[in-house]
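sorry for the late reply, my laptop died twice this morning and i had to redo everyting from scratch. anyway the thing you sent over, i finally got around to it. pasting the sequence first so we're on the same page, its 243 residues, then the predicted structure underneath. double check i copied it right bc i was rushing
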Amino acid sequence: FVSPSAHDALELPDDDARRRAVRLANPLADTHPELRTNLLVTLLETARRNVGRGLGDLALFETGLVTRPAAGAPAAPRLPLGELPSDTDLAALHAAVPAQPRRLAGVLVGHREPAGWAGPGRAVDHTDAIGAVLRVANALGVEVEVAADEHAPWHPGRCARISLADGTLVGHAGELHPRVLPGLELPARTCAFEIDVDVLLAAVPADALQAVPVSSFPLAKEDFAFIVDATVTAASLRGAVAE
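ok and here's the structure:
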């Protein structure tokens, strides 16, 4: 359950579909009457509490359902008690049930590699959030594409759109916009991702392997270095190498 003001904290546009939420007729708390439409709205609150208690370097993730009502969807009818609902009543109830896709989200704060005797460490950046999504897709055997995008609450210059080969949106990843971080009480350069797991699962190849045998031979690696124009993206370079 979330507050409508949570959408303002993420600076979602007025016409953003994530602002269209199911409002409960009898919420547990009047301040939180809506069902969440995304995981970040609650996961970032969890990150804020951890940072407030002194955990400066952390990575959190959550998988769960969100509620995404369609525009113009009817409200659920309030049926009388003590009598069996009719087929018409049940049809009205089912028509009012919104889509509830399963999502996966993560938040990364502070250092990806802690400072120590070996060096100053490395702070998390947008590539860590993108890399987390790519590992999930790779584990499922699904090919995804990465492209630059502008999508709140991410930084417009450090936001990636993750999609299937046919363009179907999987989710977004990158660094959160510096404007939203003070209100969330999170440090600068906090990164996050959120993806639709149902979309990925639907794209899993029918012949995807669930397990592979472990080789008894030592790993052999080759190291390549390339000099390319600054306009060449990492994704296009990887595609050229794979081809």
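The mean pLDDT is 92.
thats about all i looked at so far, will dig more tmrw
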